[in-house]
Structure formats: structure tokens, C-alpha cells
Amino acid sequence: MLDAIKKAFTSNEEHQPSGKKGDISREKSAELYAKAQQYFPGGVNSPVRAFKSVYGTPLFIERGDGCFLWDADGNKFIDFCCSWGPLILGHNHPKIREKVSKALEKGLSFGAPTALENELAELILKNNKCIEKIRFVSSGTEAVMSAIRLARGYTGRDKIIKFEGCYHGHSDSLLVKAGSGLVTFGETSSAGVPQSFADETIVIPLDDTKAVETAFAQFDGQIAAIIIEGVPANNGLLIQEPAYIQFLRDITRKHRALLIFDEVITGFRLGFEGAAAYYGIQPDIITYGKIIGGGMPVGAYGASSELMGHISPDGGVYQAGTLSGNPVAMAAGIAQLSELKSSSFYKSLHTKSNEFVEAIRRYTAAKNYKLKLFSVGSIFWFAFTDKEQIRAASDIDHHSMEYYKAFHRELLNRGIYFGPSGYEVGFVSAAHTKVELEKAKRAIFESLDEVFRHKS
Ligand SMILES: *Cc1c(COP(=O)(O)O)cnc(C)c1O
Q: What is the pLDDT along the chain (456 residues), one digit of tens a residue?
């Protein structure tokens, strides 16, 4: 997503027609894309979808089932993008479809409470020790924006700390990138975000305790919260040391600032209780999105009853939504999360993911390819690098994205669908069977052989 923002404003690159021998047919997709360009900026409703960082025009998707996607030209893919994370059960899951159909029959929206909201809340809160109350919204962006407002309202402070390389949706205070220097006020990373908003956001590098200490020293008593992704997974996969997360917990407590885990990706992904339980660290506020809605637009934020008591109408922090807690979306969330409750669900998903990732690691090591596969649970990321660890955004070599670009094209040609940017992670879902993962591995090996034959 961060890459998408950068590219949306910097890319002047023309789309190459996919003329290479063996390239899949994209005629119908190209036709649809031409039309879409008349209607939408860049032909899309979210920038990364425009394929600016990979070859060819975007694929228009016709349908999905299990771990498969079909595009408008009838090409079939094994999908590792999974709608950017929400589809942990795969596409078109029968139980979600059934529950959604039932809800559909009763009407699409009432703007009044329904039992379905209670049902989803109960499912979450009864199985999550980290939060006591929750508020449903309609996207991850909205969840994070509201969590920030809560933190500011609760502490009476304005400044927040975010990390370079973490994405938290597209709200104003979070569309901010690092300026120069170790601890800086952010610079806006989008036109239209006032510098005065960015001035309330301090952007610092990940994996750097000094920078956090300096920020608290410099802005003593002004910092409302630190926000960090459960595991930063929007700008590569920047896996942090548990000790670093614990340090963030300790220093926020010490300065009476809040710690916000943005678990829009990691929530219900690393486990039912997400990264908080994975680290065994209790944040003050947690945000959710993606998986929570089973493929429908749902976000949420949760905290202790005391903190959530500051949200309106109980408290003075205003936050609302016409379609919040939408019954059809709640139904999808209930159906999906119900399947995730058992501990064996994550055990088998993680084992399967690990075997898949390990096999690719063994292959690339044997071939001596300049490639590392970083992974946690069912999230993985191909990094075309020699580095053993990548913990900070600045450790990513931007030139290495050329490898990803070639890799992505080879993968599509072999029926494997990944996100159209080398900064994006891949996801294994419960619908990826051993047979498909075996096929995917072969296609990945062949694609890598092809990439490194030409590049090295
Ligand atoms: C996707 C994402 C968001 C934004 O969610 P949207 O539903 O796209 O608005 C926020 N934070 C994180 C960590 C995300 O991965």
C-alpha cells in the first residue's frame, strides 16, 4: 500500500503490452481497463490495483473459488493475494455465502442495531483477552483514524508516533512519511494533507529504541500514542524483535501514552487474538479490518471498557457511521470468525504455510539465488536481498523491485497470482490444499529460474 502511494505520485512509467512469448492473454482485461480509465482515476478504485509496479495491464477478476481466481479472459490462478488478506478461508466459502444469503433476505441496512452486531462482538470478545469493548466501522482506515482520535481524546495530547514503513490507512494524520533526521516531524506523503496535520505525527524508523527515547524526551508530555502494525506487513514484512515491542509497551506506560496495535492485517491472522497474543503484550487499543469482515467492508477498534467509555455516546470522542455494523457485513464476519475459533485452525494453517515457505527457502539456497523469504504464520514476503534480516524500511533495496517485476510476470504466466507490487506480502489461506501448494511451488521455482537466468 505504501508502495502504491509512492507509485501513484511518482510513476510516469508506461504500461508495456504483454507481448512476451508465453504471456497469458489479457485481451478482455485490457478492454475493461481501457473503459475503466474513462471512469476512474488511473482506471481503478485503489491505486495499487493499477499494476504500476509490474508488467502489463491489471487483470479484471471474474470470480473466485477456494484458492482459485479466474480473470475476464478465463485465465485461472492460484491466489496468494487473497483480497489483500481478508480471505483466510479462501474465496466463496460456502458457510460465509450461506450466512450472507440469509442476512440478504431480511434487508441490507437498517441504520438501527441488530442482533448480528451482538453476535459478532460476542464471538470476538469472548475469545480475546486483550479487549473488553469494541466498535464496528466500515474499513481499516476508519478503525485506525478513530483509534487515534480516542487516544488523543483520552490523553488530552495531540502528537502520535508512527513508524516509517508502517501503513495505517489513508487518513490525514497517518499519510505521513519520515522527514530527514532521526526524529522528525513527518512530511506529508500525499498532496492534500496539511503540513500542520503532519506536524502532529512523529515518524521514526522501526527497530530503533534510541529514536523512540529521543522522541519522548523531545516532546515530553505531548505524545498521545505510539501506533505500530502488529507485524509491519505493508512495506515488505518487517518482523520486529519481541523485545522491541515490549520496549514500546514499557516506554508508553512510563510516559502515560497509549500503545496502539494496528492489527488490520495481523488480527485473526497470526491467531484469533492476533499479534497481541502472539507477543503476549497488552496494547491499549487494537484496530481490526480485513479478516474481521469475511470479505465484506468491516473494520473495528477495541480497548478496555474504561477507554471505550470515552467513545460517544458514552463519552466525548465522537465517531459514527451510517453503515456501521451493517447486517450483511456482520453476517460475513460471524461466518468467517466462527471457523477460526479452534486452535487447530491456526496450527494447521501455520504448519502448511511453513512447509511451503521452507521448501522455497531450500530451493533458493541450493540455487544460491539472491532471495530471502521472510514469514510469520501464514504471511510471507519475497525479498530479493542477501540480508539475513530486514527490520526497517530503509533496509529494503528499491532496485530489487525490478526482480519482483520480472517474477510477477513469470508467476502470472504460470497461473500464480500475487499482489502487483514487491512491497506486498502474500497470504496462505485454509483453502490452499497441499496439491495446489505443490503446484504453486513448482511454478515459483520455474519463475525464479527464469528471473535469475536473465538478471544474474
Ligand atoms: C489494510 C490496512 C489498513 C487500511 O485498511 P482499509 O480497509 O484498506 O482502509 C490499515 N492498517 C493496516 C495495518 C492495513 O494492513
A: 555 444 444 444 444 444 577 899 999 999 999 999 999 999 999 999 999 999 999 999 999 999 999 999 999 999 999 999 999 999 999 999 999 999 999 999 999 999 999 999 999 999 999 999 999 999 999 999 999 999 999 999 999 999 999 999 999 999 998 776 656 677 888 999 999 999 999 999 999 999 999 999 999 999 999 999 999 999 999 999 999 999 999 999 999 999 999 999 999 999 999 999 999 999 999 999 999 999 999 999 999 999 999 999 999 999 999 999 999 999 999 999 999 998 799 999 999 999 999 999 999 999 999 999 999 999 999 999 999 999 999 999 999 999 999 999 999 999 999 999 999 999 999 999 999 999 999 999 999 999 999 765
Kindly state which CATH superfamily the domain 2-91+344-453 is placed in. Answer: Aspartate Aminotransferase, domain 1 (3.90.1150.10)
Q: Using CA atoms, how far apart are residues 48 and 426, in angstroms rounded to an integer?
A: 14
Ligand 1 pocket test: which of 173, 234, 285 has the largest number of ligand atoms within 8 Å of its C-beta? 234
Class (C level, CATH) for 94-340? alpha beta
Which amino acid appears at position 104 of this protein?
A: L
Indicate which residue's Cα is closest to atom 5 of ligand 1: 140
The rounded Å distance from CA 449 to ligand 1 centre is 34
What grid cell was written down for 109? Answer: 441496512
Ligand 1 neighbours (beta carbon < 6 A): 139-141, 144, 167-169, 229, 234, 262, 264-265, 289, 299
Same fold, 2-91+344-453 and 94-340: no
**Rounded-to-integer distance, Cα 179 and Cα 210, Å:** 17
Q: Give alpha helix (H) positions in 194-241.
A: 195-198, 209-218
pTM: 0.95
Domain residue spans of the chain? 2-91+344-453, 94-340
Helix axes 327-340, 94-104, angle to 10 degrees: 150
Known catalytic residues are 167, 262, 290
For residue 102, what is the enclosing H or E element? Answer: helix 94-104
